[in-house]
UniProtKB/TrEMBL annotation:
Residues 35-91 form the Peptidase M15A C-terminal domain. The lineage of its organism: Bacteria, Bacillati, Actinomycetota, Actinomycetes, Micrococcales. InterPro entries: Peptidase_M15A_C (IPR013230), Zn_M74/Hedgehog-like (IPR009045). This is Peptidase M15A C-terminal domain-containing protein. It comes from Cellulomonas uda. It comes from the Bacteria. It holds the Pfam family Peptidase_M15_3.
Amino acid sequence: MVTMNGWSDARESSVTRIVVGDDANGATVRDGDVARAFVWLLEQLHERVEKVAVVNGWRSRAFNTQVGGAAGSNHISGTAVDVNGARHPFELHQPRGTPYVSGFSAAQERAVRDVLRDAGGLFVWGLDFPRGRRDAMHFELARGTTLADVRAFVGRVTEQKSGPVPEEDDMPTVDEIARAVWGYKNRELERVDTYALLRRTNANAQAAAKGVVDVKLLAEAIARALPAGAMTKAQVNRVARVAAKDVLRQA
Ligand SMILES: [Zn+2]
């Protein structure tokens, strides 16, 4: 089946978790270049509009129905995200007759439009949905966007960001970064690997405080403990957060 923008339903195996801004848990979206495009979008919103604190992405059809998402919502294909949803409501979920407020100031709305313009029409904003269904938290791939369009866009913004190109093949993959994070040993960490440290931290926290662990702080600690060099701090941080969350879920 396909969702409203023409992309096919995504399975759990074809989505990937992205972690941007202050959102320690991250959100899942369609993998590959779609995920890279959404990372760009969220980073731009975080820097230019407001701090990104909570992102929601992919939903199965069943879960979409359960949470009252639109039938055929692009969340089902992993090509939509909701940003800071508590602040930017979906009009349909508001009490009838309530005037709609986006939760963004006029200046912020302009800044969002600047970001969307920079993306060259790749994304559509839910605030532009028809009256009655406006959804200011929501951003999705525009209808008719192809994978080739997404790939071209990602190529363009990646080049802008990194300047004269490191060959794509030389960039560390997420897996390589994660392996480096887990493999690193450090005297201050009593020569345990990071994975074991996380497990122990989680066990202690669960015993002491019903499992409340600050994944963001944990990730920052890992990032600090890593040697400077091969990876940027942001890369380490992002992977550490994802990995920390996985470990905590398994524990
Ligand atoms: Zn949405």
